[in-house]
């Protein structure tokens, strides 16, 4: 793979950009692989990448029923943060945030990481107490956050109305090294690096069945025929339960839509990410000037990837009180993603009842921020059978009642 550089851009400009290679190959599937990963989203591609980089396992196929990065990876609001309350959560999200810091250099692909800072607004006294507790927990975990008062919030976000009649801003949990990245670029960068290692990324290929040999996985049936493997990783977000059923077991999760929208582009007015959990809304400004707005999950289970009018009304109505200037903007587009949510609002990275089959799911509304850390830990779990990053996120915790309760940090807004 030819490296991207300023010299490469100059060279290609001189010859009318006729020499660029394809970023990744699109091969026909081989009969057998050491590892098959189902799902070519961010988590699946990151898992494949770290299998190759950290463990030298490159006879890998990443199978995707649609197009690369066409699921939740391409449908989120790109927020990156690690200010979680529970120790296992903080560890994997902080690992992910730290990997994002140098990911462009590691992949030789600009993911447009912007550590602009994330504020989680405290708009009730209950939230003030909760965020103070989280700030103390983060200090013990080595995660850089602090609670700031309303005047510092106003200084960071001058367009904000901090004296709202229903939901005044009382302060906020501030993580200065949180931020955003370009969601498509994350998937494309990992895909390019995986392809360069010799891995096969097989798109437009749906898995229709999982074949077992005794108690162990033997391969997958697909719309392009049977493909055998030694190990199988399932990383398909909202469709995790469907794949688990093919293998003969059930998962403790449910699938719901999470919707978002963007406004027309405007001049730069906000250079941080703001999350307002009380009113179920969060917002940042993209590099193109659009205000990227998201809210809570739908109240009912569904597999839709479309938007709905009631979501626009509820989310924007709540945010306008805190950001009055929103009332004058036009909506540019709206979309939805299918998220898989567990009872404790924490993910599942685990072995399964089928030997040599592993599952990575349950990220709910916070999957994008976790992509590098999830891939790092899941690759180690698949390669070695154990990973310190994933040890607390096994399926057995639901049987044992050993929950990782992140309902406040993960269940409302990301």
Summarize the structure.
The chain is an alpha/beta fold. The protein has helices at residues 6-14, 42-55, 87-101, 103-107, 125-141, 150-156, 183-196, 240-247, 309-322, 371-384, 396-400, 407-410, and strands at 32-38, 60-63, 79-80, 118-122, 146-149, 171-175, 179-180, 200-202, 207-213, 216-222, 225-234, 253-263, 273-276, 281-285, 291-301, 331-342, 348-351, 357-361.
Distance between the termini: 35 Å
Helix proportion range: 25-40%
Mean pLDDT: 93
Low-pLDDT sequence parts: 410-414
Instruction: Tell me the quaternary state.
Output: single chain
> What count of helical segments does DSSP give?
12
Going by helix content, strand content and strand pairing, the class is: alpha/beta
Number of strands: 18
Instruction: Please describe the biggest sheet, giving its number of strands, its sense, and whether it closes into a barrel.
Output: 8 strands, mixed
Instruction: Please state the CA-atom Rg, rounded to the nearest Å.
Output: 21 Å
Task: Give the overall shape, derived from the CA principal axes.
Answer: globular
Q: Element order, helices and strands?
A: HEHEEHHEHEHEEHEEEEHEEEEHEEEHHH
Protein model, in words:
- This protein has 414 residues and is of the alpha/beta class.
- Helix content is 30%, strand content 26%.
- The chain has helices at residues 6-14, 42-55, 87-101, 103-107, 125-141, 150-156, 183-196, 240-247, 309-322, 371-384, 396-400, 407-410, and strands at residues 32-38, 60-63, 79-80, 118-122, 146-149, 171-175, 179-180, 200-202, 207-213, 216-222, 225-234, 253-263, 273-276, 281-285, 291-301, 331-342, 348-351, 357-361.
- The strands form 3 sheets. Strands 1, 2, 8, 9, 10, 11, 17 and 18 form an 8-stranded mixed beta sheet that branches.
- Strand 9 (207-213) and strand 10 form a beta hairpin.
- Helix 2 packs across helix 10.
- The protein starts with 5 loop residues before the first helix and ends with a helix.
- Mean pLDDT is 93; it is low at 410-414.
